[in-house]
Amino acid sequence: MIEFYELTDEEEIPFRCDVNMELSESAPQPERSWLLWLFVKASDPAEEGFVRFREELANKLQTELDAVFAGSLSKEGWIELYFYAPDAKRFENLSSEVMSAHGGFAYERGASRDTKWEMYLERLYPDAYALLRIQNRHTLEALEEAGDDHTIAREVEHYLFFQTKSALERVVSSLSSHGFSLKEEVGDNESDYAYGAVLVKTEPVTPEQVEETTAVLFDAALEQHGYYEGWSTVLAQ
After folding, report:
1. Alpha carbon distance 102, 107 (integer Å)
2. CA–CA separation, 200 vs 22, rounded Å?
3. How far is CA 78 from CA 15, 22, 39, 41, in A?
4. What letter does residue 22 receive in the DSSP assignment?
5. Which string of DSSP letters, residue by residue, matches 176-217?
6. How much is the CA Rg of the chain, to the nearest whole Å?
7. For the chain, how long is the longest CA-to-CA vector?
8. Rounded distance, CA 96 to CA 184, Å?
9. In which element (H, E) is residue 63 found?
10. Reading across the β-sheet that carries 107-113, which strands appear in turn?
């Protein structure tokens, strides 16, 4: 499954990353130790024509080289495509063939050994904050498909879990100043994070508000060595 997220880099330049999430279960793959990369001059990785090009390139490299698509980075008018393969032979010819079939691109291209899959694990695969953004987007998309008006304020539930009762209580107390109230405590004796809390706050669920709110909760849980599981709400129309 290809997921995407958007962040800014160390220089505050925005970028988008599309990543093959399924590879995380088997990374690194010793049999695919070569990183193949193709940078093309293009601005929108979601544009229909570019998606067709990416999929055709991925299929071609998989069929001919047993390569897998790892992901792409899109920034400042360039899209960087990354693949892992058993070797780099014929990569130049095959990628040129697909590019020519799609009208050609300005491009840069190369290959290098990456036995530990550092490109995938350290640069492409989402960190905890990016995973939170992906989760938020999915929830918002589900609400939107059901006809939700994100601008309408309503009660939103948030779920947090901790290893100790005292950690839970500290977070609940600290978040009260941000407008959150405790709806109920939940327990899971079979988990290392046995102490859970359902916090509620009434507010709209616009993307901007959701990002701000969930970041506050994520950081608060992390400070007490807990984790933030996500949120849910009722449909507002």
Report:
1. 13
2. 33
3. 10, 25, 7, 5
4. G
5. GGGT-EEEEEEE-TTSS--EEEEEEEEE---HHHHHHHHHHH
6. 22
7. 63
8. 59
9. helix 48-65
10. 2-8, 14-20, 68-75, 78-85, 34-41, 107-113
| Per-residue pLDDT of the chain in tens (237 residues, 90 and over written 9) | 999 999 887 888 899 999 999 999 999 999 999 999 999 999 899 999 999 999 999 999 999 999 999 999 999 999 999 999 999 999 999 999 999 999 989 999 999 999 999 999 999 999 999 999 999 999 999 999 999 999 999 999 999 999 999 999 999 999 999 999 999 999 888 889 999 999 999 999 999 999 999 999 999 999 999 999 999 999 998
Amino acid code (one letter) for 190: E
Contacts of 225 by beta carbon, 8 Å cutoff, 6+ apart: 162, 163, 167
Residue appearing with tokens 């990785």? 45
User: pTM of this prediction?
Assistant: 0.87
Q: Which amino acid makes up residue 43?
A: S
HEC-encoded secondary structure of 144-158: HHCCCCCCCCEEEEE
CB atoms within 10 A of CB 201: 17
Neighbours of 230 (CB within 10 A): 15
